[in-house]
Amino acid sequence: MTEKRFQENNEDRFSISTPTNDDPTLVVCPKCQSRAAVTLHNDGGNDEVRLSCPSCGYNLAKIVEERTFYWDAENPTDSYFGANLWLQTDCVGESLWAFNRRHLEYLEDFVSAKHRQRNPNVDTWMNSSLASRLPKWLKAAKNREQIVKAIAVLKVKYNEG
Fold first, then answer.
1. Statement: residue 158 has pLDDT above 90
2. Out of 26, 78, 103, 153, which could bridge 98 as a Cys pair, Cβ 3.0 to 4.6 Å?
3. 88, β-bridge pairs
4. Contact predicate 106/161, CB 8 Å
5. Band (86; pLDDT cuts 50, 70, 90)
6. What is the reported pLDDT for 66?
7. Bridge partners (DSSP) listed for residue 35
8. Residues 123-147: what's their mean pLDDT?
9. Would the pLDDT of 146 be above 90?
10. Contacts with 59 (C-beta within 8 Å, 6 or more apart), sequence order
11. pTM, entire model
12. Distance of CA 139 to the CA centre of its chain
């Protein structure tokens, strides 16, 4: 049996948090507290981001000018509207969260791997990869089992919607 290995890819905080129609950022609806989605659309050369809730019909749209990240916040939010993330759970005294399915899969692959390999690239800033930005508690082998269980909770929450 071979041990699981994680090979760092080109994901960074901007790429992993950019919503698509197929993989939106899941957020808590500001109106009804149900699951809502943030998607990015290119309308005539302008990037427009939309927050929509299928439960109550709440809709909000705006042209993308800048994004604000609060990754170290106790309650992380999406980078466009500041809406609370839907995929959140407590884990080893911290908040484990993900923007979307791709982010959740990335975290699962990273955490469950016993061996993690970085891709040194002198052409880019070494601290820009997503793996380099993950908190120490999430990287610690002693937390692996609890984090994998918390990721399973988030996967159920993702699939319930």
1. yes
2. 103
3. 97
4. no
5. very high
6. 81
7. 28
8. 79
9. yes
10. 50, 51, 52, 53
11. 0.85
12. 16
